[in-house]
């Protein structure tokens, strides 16, 4: 919450201007509050004073109910990597809907989709489908516990693994049974000494270490140096499984970030881009671990009414065949161009800020501390991010409330250049506020 009178006044001014521009969204928010708690059914979609409601979307553009057009650099938090209403997706799911929507039986498309994933990720011998990243993580944890006969986990502070109790972000214990978190050790991301100490001391009770190879929700924080290879080394030495949560990062390379670093985790959780906007999750890994899910073995239960759904399978096949190595390389190049363009804006205006990330995923941090983990990421000035968010919406650019941006397939250099210009305009507008309210951010 803002404490500086200058910041309090600025937030009030920007929010009032927003409400004036978004009256229909305001009315729909009030209507939503009658049926949804706080008018919300997905926490990440909320921001003050209220989110704008979208009427339609195509490519990398959105149109809200008040008639405004936006460049969409959120892409449903990277999930809609092919953009909105991609013609091949529409064609594939339209054909599928006419045949069937959901079945208590497998389809050939499910097989094809699974084959596409397996051929890209060398650490996955077998996989199963589910319907969210949360479910994918939950099942990797269950598999690790069943395989090892051990209960405890190591989790990195700030790594987001969905809504599963035992891997909730730090401090989120409301509604979680007492004792649940006793099975989870929390350590700092990028801190080799800390994780090694826990693994070596507790190896006899540890089932797995779970990690995002790049921290997502806390602000796209990359691993440093040989941190990820080090995790692979100490887990193998101590007979502890390694789980990679690549729900966010799979898009960054043809075989995910694990391919970039040359690492084979024992289990991998996937979601988001493997179906470009449809409810989806998948998890897979070593055959000896995954075979426990075989009904012929019957050791680990895994159900799900819509697992491997034929509509999602159809979309997934299009998504994966479209995301070729060359296309992923193009998206990463555009992302690096956008990140550098934003850094140049900050340098020109002498504002001490950072843009973290890799390739097509990035996050803005208003802080004078180097962002390497959750603690340093949380030093960022969220009030300033809030003002930038509203200022960019006013200009027609949709960035996530937490400063997250990503690239989607319909984007070109033109959209990136437009985004850099809009961010430059917004930061020049905000500089007088920074000078008065947060002067420590000036170089």
Helix content: 40-55%
* Overall number of strands: 16
Q: CATH architecture of the largest domain, please? A: 3-Layer(aba) Sandwich
- Biggest β-sheet strands, sense, barrel: 7 strands, mixed
CATH-derived topology of the largest domain: Aspartate Aminotransferase, domain 2
Number of domains: 2
Number of helices: 14
Mean pLDDT: 96
**String of helices and strands:** HHEEEHHEHEEHEEEHEHEEHHHEEHHEEH
Name the CATH class of the largest domain.
Alpha Beta
Fraction of residues in β-strands? 15-25%
Low-confidence parts: none
Could you walk me through the main structural features you see in this protein, from its secondary elements to its overall organization?
It contains 14 helices and 16 strands. The chain has 443 residues and is of the alpha/beta class. It has 2 domains: 5-81 and 326-441, Aspartate Aminotransferase, domain 1 (Alpha-Beta Complex); 87-322, Type I PLP-dependent aspartate aminotransferase-like (Major domain) (Aspartate Aminotransferase, domain 2, 3-Layer(aba) Sandwich), CATH 3.40.640.10. Strands 4-12-11-10-7-5-6 form a 7-stranded mixed sheet, with helices on both faces. A 4-stranded mixed sheet has the order 1-2-3-15. Strands 13-14-16 form a 3-stranded antiparallel sheet, covered by helices on one side. Helix 1 (5-21) runs parallel beside helix 13 (382-395), helix 3 runs antiparallel to helix 10 (310-322) and helix 13 packs across helix 14 (413-437). The chain is globular, with a radius of gyration of 22 Å.
């Amino acid at each position: 919450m803002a404490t500086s009178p200058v910041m309090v006044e600025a937030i009030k001014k920007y929010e009032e201007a927003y409400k004036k521009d978004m009256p229909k969204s305001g009315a729909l928010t009030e209507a939503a509050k009658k049926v949804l708690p706080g008018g919300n059914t997905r926490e990440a979609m909320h921001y003050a004073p209220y989110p704008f409601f979208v009427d339609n979307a195509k490519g990398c553009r959105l149109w809200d109910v008040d008639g405004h057009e936006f460049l969409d650099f959120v892409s449903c938090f990277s999930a809609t990597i092919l953009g909105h209403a991609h013609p091949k997706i529409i064609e594939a799911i339209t054909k599928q809907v006419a045949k069937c929507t959901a079945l208590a039986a497998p389809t050939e498309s499910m097989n094809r989709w699974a084959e596409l994933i397996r051929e890209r990720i060398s650490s996955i011998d077998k996989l199963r489908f589910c319907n969210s990243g949360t479910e994918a993580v939950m099942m990797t944890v269950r598999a690790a516990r069943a395989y090892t006969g051990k209960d405890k986990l190591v989790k990195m502070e700030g790594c987001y693994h969905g809504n599963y109790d035992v891997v909730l972000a730090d401090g989120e214990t409301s509604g979680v049974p007492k004792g649940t978190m006793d099975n989870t050790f929390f350590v700092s991301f990028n801190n080799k000494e800390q994780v090694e100490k826990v693994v070596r001391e507790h190896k006899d009770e540890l089932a797995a270490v779970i990690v995002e190879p790049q921290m997502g929700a806390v602000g796209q924080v990359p691993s440093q140096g040989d941190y990820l290879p080090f995790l692979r080394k100490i887990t193998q030495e101590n007979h502890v499984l390694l789980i990679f949560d690549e729900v966010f990062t799979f898009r960054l390379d043809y075989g995910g970030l694990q391919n970039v670093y040359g690492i084979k985790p024992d289990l991998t959780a996937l979601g988001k881009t493997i179906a470009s906007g449809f409810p989806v999750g998948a998890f897979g890994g070593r055959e000896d671990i995954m075979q426990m899910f075989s009904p012929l073995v019957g050791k680990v239960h895994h159900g799900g009414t819509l697992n491997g759904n034929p509509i999602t399978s159809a979309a997934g096949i299009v998504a994966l065949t479209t995301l070729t190595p060359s296309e992923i390389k193009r998206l990463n190049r555009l992302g690096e161009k956008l990140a550098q363009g934003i850094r140049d804006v900050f340098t020109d205006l002498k504002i001490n800020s950072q843009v973290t990330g890799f390739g097509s995923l990035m996050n803005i941090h208003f802080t004078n501390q180097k962002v390497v983990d959750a603690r340093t990421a949380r030093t960022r000035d969220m009030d300033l991010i809030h003002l930038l968010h509203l200022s960019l919406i006013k200009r027609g650019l949709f960035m996530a409330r937490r400063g997250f941006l990503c690239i989607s397939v319909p984007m070109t250099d033109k959209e990136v250049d437009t985004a850099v210009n809009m961010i430059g305009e917004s930061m020049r507008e905000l500089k007088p506020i920074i000078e008065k309210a947060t002067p420590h951010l000036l170089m």
